[in-house]
Amino acid sequence: RSLDAPSLVDLVRHVGLEDAGEIVGLATTEQLEAVFDHDLWGSPRPGADEAFDPLRFGLWLEVLLDAGEAAAIERLAAMDEDFLALAIAHHVRVLDLDALAHQMRKLDEDEQTQLDKALEEQPYEEIEELRIIARDARTWESVAALLIGLDRDHHALLRRLLERVAAATSEEIDDEGGLYEVLTSGEMLESDVAGAREDRREREEIGRAHV
């Protein structure tokens, strides 16, 4: 717990994240948030802007949950809400079931059948009036465990997060005519979170320079 974020990242990468469960299980929320700033963002090519890596987050989530689900839920719930909304939006779409039913009534029979099939092909969870649909089956088990844990222990927080993702999904459907396009508001959220991350890293560098 005395390690700074770059040192902890180096240690995790040396061990391998899949084998670092005992290490990350001991990290504080503040350490994890700083580590995420370093490890979950990267440039797809030289000179390109850094982007959030959802698959890497999915692996982190799996390791954290394996190290202790209750503790992982508490530490993630204490993190920046914009970051959590961004991470969740990269992994799921959220549909209001009443709005979905209204949309389905506007479609002809063939279109309804196609949409039904597309919806059923993706893993999903329903929480109250919301259907939460996986974007990637590879990370779904861990993401679903996070959502269920937040619903159990931090219901109000989860509601806020899901409502933000649902609004983005609704905008996607209205603007793009389908459930499969990239979330426009998710990209805007990523920009906001990236800015906050840079601010934290600048403060970290200033703090290290004075040590």
What do these coordinates show?
By secondary structure, the chain is mainly alpha-helical. Helix content is 70%, strand content 9%. The strands form 2 sheets. The chain has a 3-stranded antiparallel β-sheet. Strands 1-2 form a two-stranded antiparallel sheet. Helix 1 packs across helix 3, helix 6 (81-91) packs across helix 10 (155-176) and helix 6 packs across helix 11. The protein is elongated and about 65 Å long. It starts with a helix and ends with a helix. The model is unreliable at 179-188 (pLDDT under 50).
Shape: elongated
Please tell me the overall pLDDT.
84
Tell me what portion of residues adopts beta-strand conformation.
5-15%
Q: Helicity level, as a percent range?
A: 55-70%
Strand order of the largest sheet: 3-5-4
Number of strands: 5
End-to-end span in angstroms?
17 Å
Rg is 19 Å
Number of helices: 11
Low-confidence stretches: 179-188
Task: Please trace the helix and strand order, writing H or E for each element.
Answer: HHHEEHHHEHHEEHHH
State the major sheet. Answer: 3 strands, antiparallel
Q: Helices and strands: which structural class?
A: mainly alpha
What tags apply to this protein structure?
5 strands; 11 helices; 211 residues; mainly alpha; 70% helix; two-stranded antiparallel ribbon
